[in-house]
Amino acid sequence: MKKEVKQQFTRRITQANSTELVVILYEMLLCYLEDGEKAIEHGEAELLRGAARNARGCLNELMNSLNLNYEPAPALQRLYMFCFRRLARAEQRMDCSPIDEIRRVIKPLRDAYEKLAAANNAGPVMRNSQTVYAGLTYGKNTLTENMADQGTNRGILA
Question: Which end of the chain has a smaller Cβ tally under 10 Å, C or N?
């Protein structure tokens, strides 16, 4: 994943509510799967291991956020375990087809959570983070980001 994409995810995380955080995790997982596919296509086993490690991190976070006392958490847990197994197979065999299977599981989940996130009126989970505003500035076709409240707290509550 490129540095700019990581920065975008970081900014989104600071402004996201709980449901949007799940969407972001799914999107990060999909990015890491894409990185893994590129590594397989180029025969880069080490890059594939890194992408698989990051994808497993996203899956772990998704699994750890489940409350298994409520539906559909047990079904989601089984889907995530399936994804773990397919990811291991892709890594072991340097094969893209298991990654495609994972993508077919994750994309509909991401889409469903995206719809739920639109209905979630809760505020951001990170309550004391900087607000980011983006807009076109003086440079032709240049997008500049400005941070609001530059001198305050920076996420630390006193």
Answer: C
Assess whether the previous peptide bond of 72 is cis (omega < 30° from 0): yes
What global pTM score does this model have? 0.78
| Separation between Cα atoms, residue 75 and residue 41, nearest integer Å | 32
Find the mean pLDDT for residues 89-93. 95
Let me know: does 120 contact 18? Beta carbons within 8 Å: yes
Q: What is the pLDDT of residues 26-39, one digit of tens each?
A: 999 999 999 999 99
Place of tokens 């970081």: 10
Task: Determine how many CB atoms are found less than 10 A away from the CB of residue 155.
Answer: 11
